[in-house]
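User: hey, got a sec? need Fatty-acyl-CoA synthase folded
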Amino acid sequence: MIENVKEQLTSVHTYVVMTDKETSPETSLAPVYSYERLISEGDTAYEFLQDIDENEPAAMCYTSATTGMPKGVTYSHRGIALHTMSLGLADSAAASESDVSMPVVPMFHANAWGMPFSATWFGSKQVLPGPNFTPRLLAELIQNEKVTVTAGVPTIWLGLLQVLEQGNYDTSSLRAVLCGGSAAPKGMIEKFEKDYNVPFIHAYGMTETTPLVTLSRLKSYQQDLPDDDRLDMRSTQGMAVPAIDIKAINANGDIEWNGEEMGELLIRGPWIADEYHNDERSAEAFQDGWLHTGDVVTIDEEGAISIVDRTKDLIKSGGEWISSVELENAIMAHEYVQEAAVVAMADPKWQERPVACVVVKDDYKASTLKGDIIDYLRPQFAKWWLPDDVVFMDEIPKTSVGKFLKRALRDKVNQ
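Assistant: Yep! Here you go:
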């Protein structure tokens, strides 16, 4: 792949190939070196510099670009260190030496959510499923390696649930499944906790936030609430972890923390980025010390945020806003639905109307399901929120990190 574009790589002066062999591969790239051979020829007495400034860059990741071109985010040594310490707090991810940690998220996705750093710092065992994992492999690793904490996006856990329903796997070692990247359906949270006795912890973050911002844990006085109330609270994205400030704004200024008023989430803190790498979009996203996330949220009296939608994914129909996230979560609670994404379709009368893109579970036929899904939604939403159509797909397109690629879905439904 690199050979095809080498003439355009004018700043590159050396190529290093990562292989298990000590010989350089046959290639037209030059000069080229084998990583293993370079290491074997290194000076074992070399002392690395110890005076690296903590504010110097340590890593860079790019946003997953569900709505546009990716943006580069640089992480400092200090930012990664502080973020790593936050993962060890009892009311955060509670990372410890006794954990067996399995990030089901690639390193290019916000440094695998910082889990390899926390595992190294606290001395946890790490289980890495690799790039070509399947839900069945995850179930086997959890059982065989006695995984205690694992993390990934909702589509990962939907797939794992399907495998757990089909086979007999021991998941009793799990003390937490961490879920982020997008809102998790309430039905999925309930199934993990009631059917498999696995605590499901909803979290929120972004590439720009290293990524942890909020985490959903019940406060001490909420533990004895009725099951439905506890589930409602667990399905929020939770409260900001220590050292992070949040607020949300709309056209009228800061929103009320009443769980109803909506606004764009703003974040600041010691591991939050303050610019994109060589990108003019920095001026829009970073203002007066705050990161403008583009996520529309409510914040309740306890300080817990709930994601309503991305600003670019909200559907404006007849001058009123419709949340694609709320519709998606409701549809995915249907017993025959495996995945669902809702996008806007252009409409000459209403400007935009919602369309549901649905993947059904293996054992069910889609042909009889369209009316059932609309009827299922009818008692839950106002009539004008109901999707105009339900489009059945074999698979919903996803980004490299497993998020629904709504840009591609919008193109498809608007053809």
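Quick note: The chain is about 25% helix and 25% strand. Let me know if you need anything else on Fatty-acyl-CoA synthase.
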